[in-house]
Hints:
Pathway: Cofactor biosynthesis; FMN biosynthesis; FMN from riboflavin (ATP route): step 1/1
GO molecular function: ATP binding; riboflavin kinase activity; sn-glycerol 3-phosphatase activity
Structural class: alpha/beta
Organism: Lithocarpus litseifolius
Domain Riboflavin kinase: 268-329
EC number: 2.7.1.26
Amino acid sequence: xxxxxxxxxxxxxxxxxxxxxxxxxxxxxxxxxxxxxxxxxxxxxxxxxxxxxxxxxxxxxxxxxxxxxxxxxxxxxxxxxxxxxxxxxxxxxxxxxxxxxxxxxxxxxxxxxxxxxxxxxxxxxxxxxxxxxxxxxxxxxxxxxxxxxxxxxxxxxxxxxxxxxxxxxxxxxxxxxxxxxxxxxxxxxxxxxxxxxxxxxxxxxxxxxxxxxxxxxxxxxxxxxxxxxxxxxxxxxxxxxxxxxxxxxxxxxxxxxxxxxxxxxxxxxxxxxxxxxxxxxxxxxxxxxxxxxxxxxxxxxxxxxxxxxxxxxxxxxxxxxxxxxxxxxxxxxxxxxxxxxxxxxxxxxxxxxxxxxxxxxxxxxxxxxxxxxxxx
Length: 376
């Protein structure tokens, strides 16, 4: 998280404008491998590093034209769109909200703060992407796609039109984005902007008023909005996060399936929950999840502390984590090491929280069904 005194808002925010893909909905991670599979049919190999950086925030037509040109496909951009869109539509229905997205939208709705959705996607694609997200269509005061304005991002048109329809000025609007073109569009619209970038989108750091690792770090009161009231002492109930890990000689890494992590980049911070080794073994855990910047290739870094045991309890075995609570974000020092005192504090918070109803409820996930049977 970063900010400075000059970044702090001088006026009260009256409305919020969200981007969609990669900001509040985890579509981009789900569809990452689709292009690779599609290009293979034409004997082409996808340059995934270029794709992650180059296409972020493009409109569909811009992206299609660039891909056809870059890979010399024997297609027109329209033919490419017609072929690949059904593949994307199937994946969109599997997309889940990113950490903190539902929480923030429900909070704004509860307090009567209008908010809009402004995406470079076509409007019909936006509707398809959010169709299975409960309440989303009703929550948004305005929904806009790039085909409903003159130009998509980085033009300010989408954000200016959204603010106009909500009846607020640019000075009283806050944009929440994940991409460089989105942050540039907010700057062009003269609006305040919070960036929640993926790990590959660090270019927007310098242009945003505030940078977060995830929306769980968002503090409404910093923008003149009502503060959250959902913390339980020092712990925040969250939508359960599921991930498989393996611990070998004290080093913990995720078990990756089909080349795609189960975790979006925005899973970043100190969490607590349950570690399940088999149907008869489960342990309370505190888990910090960050990014290791020390190696040449950035990789996700896990640190696990077993509350009611030690790391040997899961060593050498594939372990299922179900994380149900959030304690705080991380800084660079936290990622590489934590003091004994800090770990004990986190263990105390987690241990006290996990017997409370709002956290115990999540133990009734499929991974922990036998615990529920005992509780009943």
